[in-house]
Amino acid sequence: MRLVLTGGGTGGHIYPALAIGREVAEKEPGSELLYIGTKKGLESRIVPAQGLPFESIDISGIRRSLSLENVRTVIRFIQGVRRSKALLKRFKPDIVVGTGGYVCGPVVYAASRLGIPTLIHEQNVVPGLTNKFLSRYASGVAVSFEDSLPHFARVGNVKYAGNPVASTMVKANKAQGYASLGLAPGTPFVLVTGGSGGARALNDAVLAMLPGLVSLAGVHLVLVTGDRYYEQTAERVKALPADVAKRVHVLSYVNNMPEVLAASSMIISRAGASFLAEVTSLGVPAVLIPSPNVTNNHQQPNAESLAAAGAAEMILEKDLSGDGLLRSVSSIMRDAELREKMAKASRRLGTPNAATAIYEQMLELIHRK
Description:
With 369 residues, the protein is α/β, with parallel strands linked by helices. The protein has helices at residues 11-27, 43-49, 68-91, 104-113, 129-134, 174-181, 200-209, 230-238, 242-245, 257-263, 273-282, 299-308, 322-333, 336-349, 354-368, and strands spanning 2-6, 32-37, 54-56, 95-98, 118-122, 140-143, 158-160, 189-193, 220-224, 248-251, 266-269, 286-288, 312-314. The strands form two sheets. Strands 3-2-1-4-5-6-7 form a seven-stranded parallel β-sheet, sandwiched between helices. The chain has a six-stranded parallel β-sheet with strand order 10-9-8-11-12-13, sandwiched between helices. Helix 1 (11-27) packs across helix 15 (354-368) and helix 7 (200-209) crosses helix 13 (322-333). The radius of gyration is 21 Å and the shape is elongated. It is a peripheral membrane protein.
């Protein structure tokens, strides 16, 4: 297969694209892939590091208020379409797959104008602006949440496939997760993460609840702070009573998140779509605090979807406190039957075969042409 991937701005768009690329390479050895992104986006660093050919176009997002910058964006879009057409004519892909972000707009639109099959993948429950626009032109749409389907009711070929990053989790080694944390196998622990950059609100709430950890005998807590908050958080943990501090493990970043996640008893986290795909593929009970600082508040519907299924509890950041968080953690960690019930609900939402489902949808679109 000759495949063009496009998606950028955040890891939530980039990693699903890379997962699709890996699936194609495994299913069809000798396939040729090309990734089209922007020079300023995170993809310009992540994709070449994966050994994939990378080309760039210049594009920016539409502002929600009247602005001269929007005029420049329209001009960049037109130029981006022209540049994308040139790249596509040269590469001659069988299909173009977009996973979100502004860069997808001109690339997928250009492919549709050239008669090349196109597929867009939506990670969140509520579609982003670019994917809403592209759904009018794409040959097909794949969604990560079943709750997304009504948003694409007018699309002829839309399928609930899941998020392809989930497919990488099935091989996660739980024993390696414990070993990397210096914990004995089977040690119950709560994993807290605010994403790669960390989240101050989560860190502060967890620090406020830590004195209450003494009531949860034998339970450890792994707090992934993000680089910005590591030193100050580590200092505050050192000031805790020794019997609590010895059960709190403060890390700035986790390089082996699949293994650590597989070993965890429950998780406290934001509600980014790709991370939730990993959580549900492993069936980890969760307390979710969606970030209010994202476009269209898109994390809240993600969290609500898991909460409605019984796989998670949701706490809005405005309602977050140390006492409230401790109550949620205590109720879950003290009740093995509840944890198993949440884990089963989570696994029912998991889509470990998502990458394969998307690959099969791609073949269908190619053969249809």
